[in-house]
Amino acid sequence: MLIASQMEPTYARRVYPCFDEPAMKATFKIRIIHDPSYVALSNMPAIDVSEVKDENGSLWTVTTFNTSLKMSTYLTAFMICDFDYVTRTERGNEIRIWARKEAIKNGYVDYALNITGAIFSFLEDTLNVSYPLPKTDLVALPDFGAGGMENWGLMIFQEASLMNLPSDEFTSRKAMIALIVSHEIGHQACGKSSWFGNLVTINWWNDLWLKEGLASYFEYLGATFVEPKLSLDKIFYAHVVQPVLREDSEIVRSLSQSEDKIKGSFSLMSLFDNITYSKGASITWMLSGFLTEKLFIRALTSYLKEFSFSNANQDDLWTHIQMVVDAQDEVQLPAPVKQIMDSWTCQNGFPILTLNLTTGTIRQEQFFNKNNRKSTDSYNNTWIIPISWMRNGSSQPLTWLDKSSKMFPEMQVSESEYDWILLNVNLTGYYRVNYDQLNLKRLAHLLENDPKAIPAASRFQLIDDVFALTDFGYVPIETALELTKYLAREDELFIWNVVLLNLIPDNLESTLKNHEVYPLLKKYLLERMLPIYHYYAGFIRQNIDALEDDYFAQVYLEKLIATACWLGLQDCLDLSSELYAKWMDNPEYKIPFLIRRTVCCYGVAVGSDKEWNFAWEMYNHTDSAEEDEDILLYAMSCAKESWLLYRYLQYGLSDTLFSSNCTSVIISHVVTKDIGHHIAWEFVTENWPLLRQRYGQELLHDVLKVMGRFVKTDVQMQELQVFYNATLEEHEREAITLLLESAKLENIERRKLLVKVATWLEKNVP
């Protein structure tokens, strides 16, 4: 049994009567009466434990906690559990990590305990503020809705966020723990890292981004402090900036909302999204960049001192930054801090900058999808934009664009093709860049001759920007493809990853496989992938542990290897068969986890029923770990023989072989495979009465979504329609019809695009 609380944003009122708003702070006295075999925890240390009898004569324990500091209701917390803990004291602050007894005994939280104190001290030193509570508890729950929650003095996490196996040396797992722990401590230490959430609280939820965006930014500093091998900036671009730029171009809300927009708790939950966390962090990164970290921290320190134990909003922070800027003369800003920052926090979306090299003019507009622009949409936002830039490899002084367009004489270039310009160096600003053809040609030329002349983060951004510009109708796909010619000289996995996600999105593999573009793509990409593929294949064959500090190998190597196998690279298929055969000979052998999914898939694909049956046998092994079960469920759908797939689907129907939720997983795996989608579709139509009774419409909806990717003609469309007209209620038909209609349009668009890609490849493949 276990009881734990989660009050943020508006649930304290369900536990005790209160004015449940962040600005109304109070001190709290908490007392819990509970079963004697359990322990009770709350924000403060327990000061008294006594016993009491109820009317039936049963004994209960009464735990009384010290009175809390002045704080908001959403930070109060309590927990009743039979967990164990490990502890250590850092600068007089007792840190305890609680978890299930066997997890503590096996050392699963030792890593988290090792870094927690260090992160606290790092934040205290950086910000020059000491932590105000006598103890800190971190608790790992088997099940918890969020990654972590920063209750003051009693932080709650899901197990995955705090635990790793002592045998697991891989940085990626540790990095995740370090990031989540830093994020939540950031709120605690009221260290520079949170806005600051606990010591200085937001006035109202419309400024939620202040505490979460900042904690998200500073979590990277804390994590890098304890794991110095992480290349912070690259991880920040790959995990924070790049994904949120993709999302923010479609989403219609600004970072900070007006107060009256957010009344009532329904709209509150929707604020806990990527815009709040990742856009908030990206904008903080940009702010710290143009102020310099030194001034930024100076401003935060003074802000913290003034607002301790009270509330603040974003304008209070801008005021403190302005005071610090006014008191020095090294950093000059083109406008008041509030005006600069409001342009980023109060407007939707973000800008795209277009540079004309001949005139040296940069203009800005809001980045939007030109393919489906309605003439009624008005996009006349302008931002005040810091521009870091380099010319011919040397960094230039920061400059600003504060109106819709402006001429920069220093950016006019000469006739020489070696004269090039790069904007937003190292992705310091939250925007995209579009260059004219002249500069793009020069950059493509430079990449082919000397890729390292452009910093890695900027190569990543150049490629990500140009593909995003292609998607949104700013530049033709050929422009993006020109920038991929140099890839044989690219040795950074995180850059390869962004290329592959754009050229071979996971959901299009089977579509591409059946298209005439496939053999061209195969030739073009393999030629460029071989160097990086062989580099990593060498480690896989000889010594995979040598990659334990290569964070990106742990996150992205799988996609690279999977793509090489998908493109039919013989060495990759051989590698998969070798490792899979090794496992068949000795079931104790562990296929390296980084590539286990791909190896199992291609082990089955290249093999016969013998390989498939082995996967089936291992799946039914009682002691296989959950992640391995998922991998095997997927691998069995990789079979290349129709009868194996058909048998697999039949197995999936049987109650005795699978728990019921596996059937739909099996169907959705098979339906995405190049030979599987017909088989799965046939299977669904034949067994529909039974499937419907078990899964209702949801399953059909998912299957039709995938089937939609293969609908190219009206005839195929009618075939699907006939089936669901016979099986669905009228109100459900409408939704599905819309789904298929839009899928068909997408397919037509995609085919046009693929024709262009194929034509370009024909010219560029010898």
Oligomer: single chain
> What helical percentage do the residues reach?
40-55%
Strand content: 5-15%
Q: What is the CATH level 1 assignment of the domain at 193-344? A: Mainly Alpha
Give the overall pLDDT as a whole number. 87
What does the overall shape look like? globular
> Helices and strands: which structural class?
alpha+beta
CATH superfamily of the domain at 193-344: Neutral Protease Domain 2
**Main sheet?**
5 strands, mixed
In the predicted model, the low-confidence regions spanning at least 5 consecutive residues are 189-195
Head-to-tail CA distance between termini: 67 Å
Report the count of strand segments.
22
So, CATH architecture of the domain at 193-344? Orthogonal Bundle
Task: Give the gist of this structure.
This protein has 766 residues and is an alpha+beta fold. A hairpin with a 2-residue loop joins strand 7 (84-90) and strand 8 (93-99).
Please provide a written account of the structure.
The chain has 766 residues and is of the alpha+beta class. Among the domains are: 3-75, Immunoglobulin-like (Sandwich), CATH 2.60.40; 193-344, Neutral Protease Domain 2 (Neutral Protease, domain 2, Orthogonal Bundle); 350-480, Immunoglobulin-like (Sandwich). It is 50% helix and 12% strand. The chain has 29 helices and 22 strands. The strands form seven sheets. It has a five-stranded mixed β-sheet with strand order 7-8-9-11-10. It is globular and about 75 Å long. The chain starts with a strand and ends with a helix. The active site is at 184 (proton acceptor). Belongs to the peptidase M1 family. Residues 2-75 form the Aminopeptidase N-like N-terminal domain.
